[in-house]
Design a protein that fits this description.
Elements lengths: L1 E5 L4 H24 L7 E5 L13 H19 L5 E14 L5 E12 L2 E6 L3 E3 L1 H10 L3 H8 L10 H6 L6 H17 L7
Parallel strand pairs: 1-2, 1-3
Antiparallel strand pairs: 3-4, 4-5, 4-6
Length: 196
C-alpha cells in the first residue's frame, strides 16, 4: 500500500495533490510500492500542520523551508505504518526583485518527503500589484483581505486565488498549486537521475 499525507487542509492545495496523485497513481505505485507492472491504490490523508515560517514567506529559502516543514510534519502525523509513506507540503511565497522596478512575484513550492529524501517542485511565478503586497509583507496585512480590497471585491478565498479572479476562473489557485505538485512528483519518480 502507498499512502500520501498532505500537510495542509487548504482546499486548493489538497485538491492539487489529489489530482496529481490520480494522474501519477499507477507510476507511483509501480515505482515505490510494487515494482514494474504493479497496480494498487494510493490512499491520501490530510493533516493540519504548521510551516514554521512567516504567514507570507519572502524569498525562495523561507518558502522551501515552509514546504519541507509541512511535508515532514505530515509524515510525523501519519505515525508508524507498514505502508510506503509520502509526506507532501505546499507553501506559497513571494520573491521581490529590485530591477527593472520593484516587482513582487508569488509562487508555490511543493516538497515531497520520501524516506530520507526531499523532492521539490515550483509553480510558475506571477507578478502581483506592488501596493497591496507591500502592505502584506511590510505591515502584516492579511493577504486575502488586502487583495480583495485592491480588486474592489470580497476577500479572496482559498480556491480561487488572484489568478482565478483575473482569468474569470479559468486558472484558479488549484492549477497553480498543481504545477508545483506535479513537478515534485516527477522529481520523485526520476530520483535515480538526481541521486548517485
Amino acid at each position: 500500500m502507498l499512502t500520501v499525507h498532505i500537510g495542509t487542509k487548504n482546499a486548493a492545495k489538497v485538491a492539487a495533490v489529489r489530482e496529481a496523485v490520480t494522474h501519477y497513481e499507477r507510476r507511483l505505485f509501480a515505482a515505490l510500492a510494487g515494482g514494474a507492472g504493479s497496480a494498487g491504490k494510493v490512499l491520501v490523508f490530510e493533516h493540519q500542520t504548521e510551516s514554521g515560517v512567516a504567514a507570507n514567506p519572502l524569498g525562495f529559502d523561507e518558502t522551501l523551508i515552509g514546504a519541507r516543514n509541512r511535508a515532514s510534519a505530515a509524515v510525523a502525523a501519519a505515525g508508524a505504518s507498514p505502508a510506503v509513506c509520502l509526506g507532501v507540503g505546499l507553501e506559497s511565497g513571494f520573491v521581490q526583485f529590485s530591477r527593472p522596478r520593484n516587482a513582487v512575484f508569488n509562487f508555490d513550492v511543493c516538497c515531497i518527503v520520501h524516506e530520507d529524501r526531499e523532492h521539490y517542485g515550483f509553480s510558475n511565478g506571477t507578478e502581483y500589484p506592488f501596493t497591496p503586497i507591500q502592505n502584506v509583507l511590510d505591515r502584516g496585512a492579511p493577504f486575502a483581505a488586502e487583495m480583495g480590497k485592491h480588486l474592489q471585491r470580497k476577500p479572496l478565498d482559498d480556491k480561487e486565488g488572484y489568478l482565478g479572479v483575473l482569468t474569470d476562473g479559468e486558472y484558479p489557485r488549484l492549477r497553480v498549486c498543481e504545477i508545483a505538485v506535479r513537478h515534485a512528483f516527477l522529481r520523485l519518480l526520476h530520483a535515480g537521475d538526481y541521486y548517485a
